[in-house]
Amino acid sequence: xxxxxxxxxxxxxxxxxxxxxxxxxxxxxxxxxxxxxxxxxxxxxxxxxxxxxxxxxxxxxxxxxxxxxxxxxxxxxxxxxxxxxxxxxxxxxxxxxxxxxxxxxxxxxxxxxxxxxxxxxxxxxxxxxxxxxxxxxxxxxxxxxxxxxxxxxxxxxxxxxxxxxxxxxxxxxxxxxxxxxxxxxxxxxxxxxxxxxxxxxxxxxxxxxxxxxxxxxxxxxxxxxxxxxxxxxxxxxxxxxxxxxxxxxxxxxxxxxxxxxxxxxxxxxxxxxxxxxxxxxxxxxxxxxxxxxxxxxxxxxxxxxxxxxxxxxxxxxxxxxxxxxxxxxxxxxxxxxxxxxxxxxxxxxxxxxxxxxxxxxxxxxxxxxxxxxxxxxxxxxxxxxxxxxxxxxxxxxxxxxxxxxxxxxxxxxxxxxxxxxxxxxxxxxxxxxxxxxxxxxxxxxxxxxxxxxxxxxxxxxxxxxxxxxxxxxxxxxxx
Length: 479
Hints:
By secondary structure, the chain is an alpha+beta fold. It folds into 3 domains: 6-111, no CATH class; 141-255, no CATH class; 270-429, no CATH class. It is 43% helix and 13% strand. The protein has 15 helices and 12 strands. The strands form 3 sheets. It has a 5-stranded antiparallel beta sheet with strand order 1-2-4-5-3, sandwiched between helices. A 5-stranded antiparallel beta sheet has the order 6-7-9-10-8, sandwiched between helices. The mean pLDDT is 84.
């Protein structure tokens, strides 16, 4: 074998990294042998690097081949150095590891000393709870995996990691429980992730776009959560979880649309209370989608369906409005959407000011000036409140609300009924890794109705959901 000159290797690395200023090179001599450590500044534990690696090598009385054994004797580090070919060293350096080169040696040695900056574990802002665990995932994949391991202390929890993205080389971990998850589903998800060929993966949404069944559909086709307890429960039902480094959002598959009606708090409260809350969530979502369209249909085509007193009140409130009902409702809807987007993107300390100006000043002034009617503002306000009963479906529900509004403005209730039939037919055609999208109601799966819109006690859920393919159906064994 030809000897490798350490100076040539370092020069080549500097060219590979285009002379980047954060590429650091530390040269030392260990017992007379020239060595160099190359790493990216800011991503390693400098104290551990100096104390556990540099100091022992500088104090070593002997450092000779085989260098892997010499490192194992000299270096006081908990993880062994991983040998890699010198030509492959740019990869570990880019990922944040420290790579050691020895003059004349064709093998480099990788030390994992990563110490990335990360935020503390806290309750996720999108999943606040009254009862139950309050910790949520963060952007660091190792921390997220440790939280999952802490809840599922079993060797049957399988974690397989992929590197996705030509430039980002993002770590994507796929989790399932061996003996519970269906092998075919796991294999299909492995294949989909291994075939992803993209420049970079910045968030789990990038992976979600590749693993969902119908990429053109505006309906969500995968579950998402920021809470380890929720993801653990789904794994125990036979699902597969996907954790992406750099994202606190974990993807779960297969997915049912009724998962968005369920919440972790349902399983930490009484069964009757959980069932009532789920019904309220469904009613809130239906009000959001149908109420604006129904208001337009009644006001434009079906006034005879309204009680006389309510009709007189409505006519008094809308008299003098310069816009047709449909245009008026669209104006109010656009106004609310603009205010919503502005409140999300504005600094937090300006949020109260925006609420006052938007809700009170603009709304009250528009009604008093006769540009819009107070019933229209009330209808859109109720619709805007109900949309957050199912927060994961906000985008989908917003689109459906607009569709029903436009159809009702042209054809009234007839068009709304036809659109509802078409929509239900489309939803029944969706399939997610062998799981019907509308299960357990279409098709009807009787055992799964115990955890659908209504919830029974945990003790009564003897079997895992029949809607989800699984290798082990029994969940509770009764003596």
